[in-house]
Amino acid sequence: MKRYGFIFILAGFVGLLLWGCSCRTCQKGGPPPPAPAVAQQAPAKQGPTPEEIRARELARLKEQELERQRRIEAMARAFEQKDIHFDFDKYDLKPQARATLRELANFLLEYPQYRVRIEGNCDERGTEEYNLALGEKRANAAKAFLVSLGVSPDRIDTISYGEDRPLCTEHNEQCWWRNRRDHFVLIKVK
Q: Which 8-state DSSP code applies to residue 16?
């Protein structure tokens, strides 16, 4: 019985040994791996804050206003390229001149922050005094037409340069025609 007891004890010991080796430590030959860490999740992305929404909206509105100002200033510069022309020794407005002045009046009525200076010009023929007077009549004819379209006379200045500011210096009709003009300068007053 002693013998059987010893076998029993030995079998128990071997059983314990085998049971202990079934764990990962004995199978891999190293310490057990650390328990997997619980993955930290990034906090859920929330929508923009009210302050961020306001800031974005203000930036969008500011950009729209800047773009609007750029368009208005481009239109103003375009008018400065639209001279109206006159026949020799005349200051009456031709149909094309009236069309240009209507466009200018519409612009001035829509954008009250602008004023206009009308510069009357003549060709080189005639005396200096005569051409200064004729340039003034040309500028005043354009002013009177703008006023008749509803533009306040307080927003319109006139000046005559007579023959002093020619665009062309050749001595022929095509050149003289270019010099017989009213030129417009738009001034932003805020």
A: H
In which order are the strands placed within the sheet that holds 181-188?
A: 84-85, 181-188, 114-121, 156-162
CA neighbor of 121 nearest in space, from 109, 130, 134: 134
Give domain status of residue 178, yes or no.
yes
The pTM (predicted TM-score) of the whole model is: 0.68
Structurally, the chain folds into a number of domains equal to 1
Q: Is residue 88 part of a domain?
A: yes
Helix or strand holding residue 108 (H, E) = helix 95-110
Domain that holds residue 87: 60-188
Contacts with 40 (C-beta within 8 Å, 6 or more apart), sequence order? none
Q: Which pair of tokens denotes residue 148?
A: 């008749």
CATH number, residue 92: 3.30.1330.60
Question: pLDDT digit string (tens) for 20-60?
Answer: 555 544 455 566 666 666 556 656 678 889 898 899 999 99
Q: Which residue has the tokens 């005559």?
A: 160
